[in-house]
Amino acid sequence: VSTQVLARLGDLTERGIPWDAPVPEYWFPVGEVAKYDIHWGVFTVGEATATAQWLRIGDRRFLALTMTAESNGIVEMLYPVAEYMQTILDPATFLPICFEKQSSEGRHKTWDITTFDHARRTGRWESLLRLNPEEFPIDPDTRDLMGLMYWIRKDPVKAGETRTYRVMTDEKLYELILEAGQKETLDIGKPYGKVATLKMEPKGKFNGLFVRKGRMFVWVSDDARCTLCRVTASVPVASIKVLLRSIEGPGTDGWITRNPANQKAQP
């Protein structure tokens, strides 16, 4: 967690849970690391990593959800892209306390921090590059983009179902509509091969990871882990595809046991 975030969190003695208290059990394993390859047309242009880990601040325990992405190869030389998003949540409520986003695309850079006060139902967004803080009202269950991605896994969307969520991003609350299609068998390559998935289309007008405009589809594994396996997006100049490479961390399901990287990590 950055010093800029710590400076804006204020008094945390009434938030989070004591570090020595029993650890909450979630619908996903804390310590999970999901790695992805990013393709632009026929080229592999970058990679992304999503992690869930415990965070200690003073004697309090929090949950940190982090997504990093960066370009590689010739794209890195011609038009470097890097993105970082981190949500710090209260483990007891799974509501966000702070959301930080750093983005660098060529010469364009952003660095935003949003803090949440659900007791007062207010959020405070600030650009560290422009220094123009804004306050805005939030709902009792307002979540940011990162937190919502993990929250949805608690109650998976069913085939043919449509759900609507309110999500905070870009200093505003937006409506995100998630339309689920039918189940599909998806071949994601080694080490997992064919995976049962559910195809969905999220619809919302806000900035997301690498994708700014166009139609997007996501494929989520049809199992207890609800792993994001594939993302495709059509944009004006090309098609972007994000493919799951591996899942690492704790667990005994096939996502862990079939990944050689986890076997090597065993003592």
At a glance:
The chain is mainly β. The chain has helices spanning 3-9, 73-78, 145-151, 254-257, 260-265, and strands at residues 17-18, 33-40, 43-57, 60-71, 81-89, 96-105, 108-117, 122-127, 134-137, 143-144, 162-169, 172-187, 194-203, 215-221, 228-234, 239-248.
Question: Would you mind describing this structure in some detail?
Answer:
This protein is mainly beta. It is built from five helices and 16 strands. The chain has helices at about 5-10, 75-80, 145-150, 255, 260-265; strands at about 15-20, 35-40, 45-55, 60-70, 80-90, 95-105, 110-115, 120-125, 135, 145, 160-170, 170-185, 195-205, 215-220, 230-235, 240-250. The protein has a 16-stranded mixed beta sheet that branches. Residues about 210 have low confidence and may be disordered.
Name the descriptors.
mainly beta; single chain; 16 strands; globular; 267 residues; 51% strand
The fraction of residues assigned to DSSP E strands is: over 45%
Largest sheet: 16 strands, mixed
* Low-pLDDT residue intervals, each spanning 5 or more residues: 208-212
- String of helices and strands: HEEEEHEEEEEEHEEEEEEHH
| Overall pLDDT metric | 88
Count of runs of 4 or more consecutive helical residues: 5
User: Which secondary-structure class do the elements indicate?
Assistant: mainly beta
Total number of β-strand segments? 16
Cα radius of gyration in angstroms = 19 Å
Terminal CA distance reads 29 Å
Helix content: 10-25%
Assign an overall shape.
Answer: globular
